[in-house]
# Entry
Amino acid sequence: MDIQFFNFIKHGDARGQLVAIEELKDIPFSIKRVYYMWNAGPEVRRGYHAHKKLQQVLICVRGRCKILLDDGTEKQVVLMDDPSKGLYVSNVMWREMYDFSSDAVLMVLASEYYDPSDYIRDYDEFLKFVGKEKK
Ligand code: T46
# Structure
C-alpha cells in the first residue's frame, strides 16, 4: 500500500517551530473544514469508517497516536508523532485511530464540509465500494 506523507517546511529558529500549510500548494485539495480531537483516553479507538468522497490530511500537532489504514486489500499502521508531517487519507481508505498519548491532538484538514451521508460505516459495504468484496 502506498502511504503518502506531506513533509511540511519547518520554519524553526530560537523562538520555536512554525509550519504553514496552504491549500493546493502544500496539500492537493482546497480546505473546506478543519477539525481536531484531543483528550482521547489510552483505550479509545475511533474512526471505523471510510468515505464516499472526502479527502483528508491528518496531522498530529501534539503527542502521538497510531492510524490504521486499510484499502480493502492491505492494512498498514502509521505512527503519527511529528507535527511537520501530514498523512494523506483518501476517501477509499478505512481508518481507525488509536493509542493516543494523553497529550495527543490530532488535527484534520478536510476537502469537504461535514456530511454524515458521505460516511461508509459498514465494512462489507466498504469492500463493495472499493470493488474488492469477498467472493
Ligand atoms: C475521519 C476521522 C479521521 C461534526 O459535527 N462535524 C465534523 O466535521 C466532524 C468530523 C464530526 N462531527 C460530529 C459527529 C459526531 O457526533 O462529531 C462527533 C464525532 O465524530 P466521529 O464519530 O465521526 O469522529 P471519528 O473520530 O470517528 O472520525 C473523524 C471524522 O468524522 C472522519 O471523517 O476520517 O475523524
